[in-house]
Design goal:
- The protein is mainly β.
- Helix content is 0%, strand content 51%.
- The chain has one domain: Thrombin, subunit H (Beta Barrel), CATH 2.40.10.
- The protein has a seven-stranded antiparallel sheet with strand order 2-1-7-3-4-5-6, with no helix packed on it.
- The N and C termini lie close together (6 Å).
- The mean pLDDT is 88.
């Protein structure tokens, strides 16, 4: 992994975005970024995408905003408090 630093997603000062660790000083996450998110003590690698609407697989739940497309094809919405690593 190119960056072992673990960050926490926080709301960015740029409306609708997430930043790493600090809303003002932290780097914003944007579509196309490669990152890994920690879910249940496991790191899931993928890339960030943005959509006005996206559906969570196998549910009728629809969201908007930033989400991760995992290497295995799974989809997970990003949220404040998630632990992430840049790839």
């Amino acid at each position: 992994m190119s960056n072992e630093t673990v960050y926490t997603l926080v709301p960015s000062t740029n409306r609708g975005r997430y930043a790493l660790d600090d809303p003002v000083e932290g780097r914003d996450i944007t579509g196309g970024d490669a990152l890994a998110i920690q879910l249940d003590r496991r790191w899931i690698e993928g890339r960030v995408e943005h959509a006005h609407l996206y559906a969570i697989a196998r549910t009728e739940h629809v969201e908007r905003g930033y989400y991760l497309i995992a290497r295995n094809g799974g989809v997970c919405g990003l949220c404040v408090g998630m632990k992430v690593r840049l790839r």
